[in-house]
């Protein structure tokens, strides 16, 4: 079968997780990727964890470099390096390499530069390990228990997200190059990408000044421990009867402590104590299945070591092998151009002398005026909440016309859900007469889009949607598998209307398999990946990353998959069906950890923020209520610098702390010493002092800190937009910067049905009488139905 990126020449000259993950995604789907390494090999080859059976094999390197070849090039050998770069379609560079050098050599090349904080700006010299990136993003402030140190998460997810963002930028630039034959620079910062994954609380703060804290009980969820693992249960008010029935606790439904939502929330801990007693001896997967059949969202927190034997994953033939070693399965399932991994990670320099690329001949195309790179592309979104709308938002940011389609009886849940609206969702805490147009949640995700309301339960509504499909390029759906088919809009039916359409669905667990029908949210998907089990305080329950970390990751994955399918269509005219199983795609972010657990059968114990390869590596209290600063000594030099900055240089040679092994043995005592130093100091001042001294550190930012970030302002992250119902506010942006054809935020999210007439008149070219008839029928609406 063909591959989506066949014939694309990629030079992976990067030396970071982000760069090599970006190149791995391109290699997975057919690009010819050459990893350029120094004589001593890529630094990722020396990164923990290592295989037990092959002690010199870094599992990060194995995970990130399958399907690539390797050549060794001394950077002093400019001729050899320039020859490769001059012949490349795409070049992914190390942070210290000038992109303009490649542009001069090869004007048609897409040049990617990915780094922690960028090549310029207020934080250009800062050190940015994962804990620093998550602290600055606003994400870490939401993780863990109030009164304890906030948790950074697990692994290196900010770097993986930046690699995914870079991949998106490259694919957008490649689509634009199809018409112009011109290259450009794609710039991505991991710090800005991390902030883009967390902006709902920032948007809420901008709307009404509120600051979310871990003290707030804002999600209707809790965890219970079964005999074989933890289970998270979401108890929405409208599912209360179903919860009581599924748990065989019918007497709770009218119990005065729980019968009413507000009282139930006040007695939340008591409720979960009763549920815990009921399920202690039950099987976690059986409990989840029973709840899901009752349409109650629930998930087991899988341990990494369980995933190799996971019945659902194995039913989907998820795990694969390359060169006899285990690799993770495909992040995206594409009907025409599936993933094709031909080999495992390469030996150092194995392709030396075998690469003989010659520069391609490119004649620049003609463009009468600057265009957005995806201009002319039309997208239909049948989506809700975050992941699906995020995918459409990425495409719209770069110029696609994205039409957000909602049914009046099934409104986007981020506009209006079945729970009672809370003041924190609205500007100045006021719902107003059109609360569905004033919610910061919907308005954060639907910038640049059009709104068309079609009642798909009516034949007229479905007929109108089919007319829209006939003039569209992409359709995105993130409802449960089978939703499109029930409406008569399965891929085969849509392709019969528009043969080259790309249809992308985002089922949490994929379109088939024992768990395929399970409903999910970001936190429950995080539990299903194996991430949550590695996050938490010692001896305590698994934790999640708030708010809903895997939702925007799912949106980014879907955008990347759609753009790969678009690259194939640009060259062949062929559309296809794309499935983005969000859990499986997100598992790539902890690939090394999953491979180690599969190999050993062991799971790393949750240990707060502590890691094996750094000490200190934690959040420490700062001046003020629930204020924290993270400090991470990445090496001995930073440890010595930290001791000097604290005014305690003698600690550097203290036998308790003189090397990493000693610091790990005495970590509790070390933590106490640092806490005493930070507790009376401002978190921002501590971070600046330590970064100036060469030590990785950052304030744990809340929503107000992120909104006031001089770094994000310098990056142009916020754009002021006017909304007719919500007013004028700054809107957080996206972290993907194209040098020649940048994306932008051009208009605020649409009013409910605000473009009904535009769609009928200007896109579908209906007659005046047809427009009048449809507008007055049950097929279209300008406000949600009362029972929607």
UniProtKB/TrEMBL annotation:
Coiled coil: none annotated. It comes from Neorhizobium phenanthreniclasticum. Its EC number is 2.8.3.-. The keyword Hydrolase does not apply. The keyword tRNA-binding does not apply. GO terms for molecular function: transferase activity. SUPFAM superfamilies: CoA-transferase family III (CaiB/BaiF) (SSF89796). It comes from the Bacteria. PANTHER family: SUCCINATE--HYDROXYMETHYLGLUTARATE COA-TRANSFERASE. It is an enzyme of class 2 (transferase). Keywords: Transferase. InterPro entries: CoA-transferase_III_domain, CoA-Trfase_fam_III, CoA-Trfase_III_dom3_sf, CoA-Trfase_III_dom_1_sf. This is CoA transferase. Pfam families: CoA_transf_3.
């Amino acid at each position: 079968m063909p591959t989506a990126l066949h014939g694309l020449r990629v030079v992976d000259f990067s030396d970071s997780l982000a760069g090599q993950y970006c190149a791995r995604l391109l290699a997975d789907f057919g690009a010819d990727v050459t990893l350029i390494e120094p004589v001593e090999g890529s630094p990722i080859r020396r990164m923990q964890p290592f295989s037990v059976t092959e002690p010199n094999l870094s599992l990060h390197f194995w995970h990130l470099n399958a399907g690539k070849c390797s050549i060794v090039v001394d950077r002093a050998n400019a001729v050899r390096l320039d020859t490769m770069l001059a012949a490349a379609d795409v070049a992914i560079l190390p942070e210290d390499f000038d992109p303009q050098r490649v542009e001069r050599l090869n004007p048609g090349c897409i040049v990617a530069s990915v780094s922690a904080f960028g090549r310029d700006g207020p934080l250009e010299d800062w050190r940015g390990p994962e804990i620093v990136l998550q602290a600055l993003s606003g994400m870490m402030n939401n993780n863990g228990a109030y009164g304890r140190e906030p948790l950074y998460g697990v692994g290196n997810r900010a770097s993986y997200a930046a690699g995914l963002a870079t991949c998106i930028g490259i694919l957008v630039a490649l689509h634009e190059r199809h018409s112009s034959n011109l290259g450009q620079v794609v710039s991505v910062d991991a710090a800005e990408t991390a902030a883009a994954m967390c902006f709902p609380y920032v948007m809420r703060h901008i709307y009404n000044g509120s600051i979310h804290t871990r003290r707030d009980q804002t999600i209707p969820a809790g965890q219970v421990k079964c005999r074989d693992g933890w289970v998270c249960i979401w108890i929405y008010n409208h599912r209360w009867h179903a919860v009581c029935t599924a748990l065989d606790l019918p007497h709770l439904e009218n119990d005065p402590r729980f019968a009413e939502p507000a009282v139930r929330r006040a007695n939340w801990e008591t409720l979960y104590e009763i549920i815990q007693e009921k399920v202690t001896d039950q099987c976690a997967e059986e409990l989840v299945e029973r709840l899901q059949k009752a349409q109650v969202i629930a998930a087991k927190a899988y341990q990494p070591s369980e995933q190799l034997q996971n019945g659902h994953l194995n039913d989907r033939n998820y795990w694969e092998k390359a060169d006899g070693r285990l690799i993770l399965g495909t992040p995206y399932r594409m009907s025409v151009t599936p993933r094709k991994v031909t080999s495992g990670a390469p030996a150092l320099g194995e392709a030396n002398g075998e690469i003989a690329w010659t520069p391609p001949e490119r004649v620049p195309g003609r463009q009468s005026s600057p265009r957005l790179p995806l201009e002319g592309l039309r997208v239909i979104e049948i989506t809700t909440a975050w992941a699906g709308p995020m995918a459409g938002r990425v495409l719209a940011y770069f110029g696609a016309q994205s039409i957000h389609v909602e049914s009046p009886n099934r409104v986007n849940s981020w506009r209006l859900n079945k729970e009672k609206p809370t003041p924190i969702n609205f500007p100045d805490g006021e719902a107003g007469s059109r609360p569905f147009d004033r919610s910061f949640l919907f308005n954060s995700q639907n910038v640049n889009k059009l709104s068309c309301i079609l009642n798909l339960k009516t034949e007229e509504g479905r007929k109108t949607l089919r007319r829209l499909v006939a003039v569209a390029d992409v359709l995105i759906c993130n409802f449960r598998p089978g939703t499109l088919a029930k409406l008569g809009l399965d891929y085969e039916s849509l392709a019969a209307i528009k043969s080259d359409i790309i249809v992308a669905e985002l089922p949490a667990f994929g379109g088939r398999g024992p768990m395929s029908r399970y409903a999910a949210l970001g936190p429950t998907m995080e539990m299903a990946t194996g991430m949550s089990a590695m996050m938490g305080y010692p001896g305590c329950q698994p934790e999640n990353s708030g708010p809903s970390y895997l939702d925007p990751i799912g949106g980014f994955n879907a955008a990347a998959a759609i753009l790969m399918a678009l690259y194939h269509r640009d060259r062949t005219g062929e559309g296809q069906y794309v499935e983005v199983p969000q859990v499986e795609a997100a598992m790539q972010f902890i690939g090394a950890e999953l491979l180690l657990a599969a190999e050993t059968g062991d799971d790393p114990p949750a240990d707060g923020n502590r890691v094996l390869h750094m000490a200190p590596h934690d959040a420490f209290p700062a001046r003020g209520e629930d204020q924290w600063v993270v400090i991470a000594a990445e090496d001995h030099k930073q440890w010595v610098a930290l001791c000097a900055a604290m005014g305690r240089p003698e600690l550097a040679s203290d036998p308790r702390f003189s090397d990493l092994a000693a610091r790990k043995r005495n970590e509790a005592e070390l933590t106490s010493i640092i806490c005493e130093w930070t507790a009376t100091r401002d978190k921002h001042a501590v971070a600046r002092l330590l970064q100036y001294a060469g030590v990785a550190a950052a304030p744990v930012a809340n929503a107000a800190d992120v909104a006031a970030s001089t770094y994000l302002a310098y990056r142009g992250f916020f754009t002021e937009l006017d909304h007719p119902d919500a007013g004028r506010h700054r809107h957080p942006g996206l972290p993907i910067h194209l040098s020649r054809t940048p994306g932008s935020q051009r208009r605020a999210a649409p009013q409910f049905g605000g473009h009904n007439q535009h769609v009928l008149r200007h896109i579908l070219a209906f007659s005046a009488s047809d427009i009048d008839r449809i507008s007055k029928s049950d097929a279209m609406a300008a406000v949600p139905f009362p029972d929607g």
